[in-house]
Write a structure and sequence with these properties.
single chain; mainly beta; Porin; two-stranded antiparallel sheet
């Protein structure tokens, strides 16, 4: 009888004090961990990479073939495990210069200098297909299309005995359609970070002109590598 009264009193005191009585916990003989809610994964990711491009052809009789290098920032929205869309921002620079100084018959000094600078930037929406190779390695293929701007500055100087014989300074810039196709691989360091490398074919119809002569359309083979971050 005393035990019953004590038990009733133990349950009644916390209730009167506004504190709920402890709940009985069901036994877990297998020690199985309680299920945890699945983590919320964002469909967004960002890639930051460097790119090197080598020209398929000269772009002008004066504007020679110029290899370029630069960087790209790509924001990716994942639709499902295989399909995603993206928008890419890029900037490329390239230059080539050649100069020589010679002495002929100890009387004639000939100096010749030629230089070309190229700068371009582009904005390109795109689509990408991705599939897994192993748990940590995947491959992807994508296409991008948008607009680009190319600026070219060409200088040529020729002198004999410090007397200028020819001095050309040409420059121009133009907007055009730009497109690329790429094939690459990703190595996932963790759920949030991965490394990538890819081959790209990149082209643009931007054609700077000078003195009424337009440059050719640009086309490049490219390699790119960088890091991706999943949010």
């Amino acid at each position: 009888m005393k035990k019953t009264l004590l038990l009733a009193l133990a349950l009644a005191v916390p209730a009167m004090a506004g504190v709920s009585a402890p709940l009985a916990v069901a036994p877990n003989p297998d020690n199985t961990p309680a299920p945890q809610p699945a983590p919320v994964v964002s469909p967004w990711s960002v890639e930051i990479g460097g790119v090197y491009r080598w020209a398929c052809d000269d772009i002008h009789s004066e504007y020679k073939d110029v290899d370029v290098w630069g960087g790209e920032l790509t924001a990716i929205y994942k639709i499902n495990d295989n399909h995603s869309v993206n928008i890419r921002f890029g900037y490329n620079v390239g230059d080539t210069s050649d100069s020589c100084y010679t002495v002929e018959n100890l009387q004639v000094n000939i100096y010749e200098k030629e230089k070309l600078d190229l700068t371009s930037f582009y904005i390109m929406p795109g689509y990408r297909y991705t599939d897994s190779i192993t748990d940590s390695v995947s491959w992807y293929a994508g296409v991008n299309a948008g607009i680009s701007n190319l600026k070219a500055d060409y200088e040529y100087y020729y002198a004999i005995n410090n007397d200028s014989q020819d001095d050309i300074d040409l420059s121009g810039d133009d907007w055009g359609f730009a497109a690329s196709a790429e094939l690459g691989v990703q190595y996932h360091i963790s759920d949030c970070v991965y490394l990538f490398g890819a081959y790209q074919y990149w082209m643009s119809t931007a054609r700077p002109s000078d003195e009424g002569v337009k440059a050719k359309k640009q086309s490049y083979h490219s390699v790119t590598a960088g890091v991706g971050i999943n949010f």
